[in-house]
Write a structure and sequence with these properties.
By secondary structure, the chain is an alpha/beta fold. It has 11 helices and 10 strands. The longest helix is centred in the first third of the chain and has 20 residues. The chain binds octanoyl-coenzyme A.
């Protein structure tokens, strides 16, 4: 598929998706979301890709939100459909077998922060600015922000951010647990790639099953989550990766995982 709004590269098992509408601070419109959905599916099916990084083009923005200019033209039915599409694309990130790291290089507002929150974890530049300003537009977060931010930082802090629509800096976002680490802008992508490369070296099935256990376990009561974890571990014992990983340990060599 032709990508008009995204750039995509793969190097050493790590894919980098760059949201590329810098003239609109990388705002998410329908066309972009549709391209992102196809690209994510393609990368998930590509066995050579072990981790994915999502970032924004230019120095100013990761993603400044849903495209307000497009959203302003929508009727209620179209807005509902747009929200469902955004939620479906963001949910597909959570359901991917590969970890997705958000490298937030500037504004991550509204749908942009929601996109980052759908990723497995977030690194940010010192210049990042994050928030869910939807109430300033007379609407509410619609791409999962009320659910995902609350799960990450708890009800009280999420309430404060969502009810005021205020924008916070990288340090506060890190202190609140939204962002794992902060780096200088020129270092951000390299640091994210380093972590992607580290993930690319370990057992891909183990990573995929761990992601599955964590994501699905969050929606379960603890005892069901524990049972789910144990069954996934049991399944891993039928794979070559488990045999290779443990044989390599005994033979004091680096494991050669095949993802099978
Ligand atoms: N959508 C469309 N265009 C945008 C967006 C956006 N979210 N953000 C910036 N742009 C455009 C601007 O319109 C401008 O274009 P132009 O030059 O053609 O007017 C260009 O990007 C540069 O932006 P600014 O000149 O505004 O840059 P500043 O440095 O002055 O300001 C800000 C930067 C503070 C980030 C400012 O651009 C801003 O406030 N942007 C909007 C942020 C926002 O409100 N985001 C949330 C949007 S709502 C949302 O994400 C909800 C999605 C889910 C709900 C779906 C319901 C249907």
């Amino acid at each position: 598929m032709e990508l008009k709004n995204l750039l995509s590269t793969v190097e050493d098992g790590v894919a980098v998706i760059t949201v590329n509408r810098p003239h609109a601070l990388n705002a998410l419109n329908t066309e972009l979301l549709s391209e992102l959905e196809s690209l994510l599916q393609q990368l998930d099916e590509d066995g050579s890709v072990k981790a994915v990084i999502l970032t924004g083009a230019g120095e100013k923005a990761f993603v400044a939100g849903g495209d307000v200019k497009e959203m302003a033209t929508m009727n209620s039915h179209e807005a509902h459909r747009f929200m469902l599409m955004g939620q479906r694309v963001l949910l597909s990130i959570e359901k991917m077998k590969k970890p997705v790291i958000a490298a937030v290089n500037g504004y991550a507002l509204g749908g942009g922060l929601e996109l980052a929150l759908a990723c497995d974890f977030i690194y940010a530049s010192t210049t990042a600015k994050l928030g869910l300003p939807e109430v300033t537009l007379g609407v509410i977060p619609g791409f999962g922000g009320t659910q995902n931010l609350t799960r990450v930082i708890g009800k009280n802090k999420a309430n404060e951010l969502i009810f005021t629509g205020k924008i916070i800096g990288a340090e506060k976002a890190c202190a609140w647990g939204i962002v794992n680490e902060i780096y200088a802008p020129e270092e951000l992508l390299a640091r994210a790639k380093e972590v992607g490369a580290a993930i690319a070296k370990v057992g891909p099935l183990g990573v995929a099953y761990a992601k599955d256990a964590i994501a699905n376990g969050l929606n379960m009561v603890k005892e069901d989550g524990l049972r789910y974890e144990a069954s996934l571990l049991g399944i891993l014992y039928s794979t070559g990766d488990q045999k290779e990983g443990m044989a390599a340990f005994k033979e004091k060599r680096r494991a050669r995982f095949t993802g099978s």
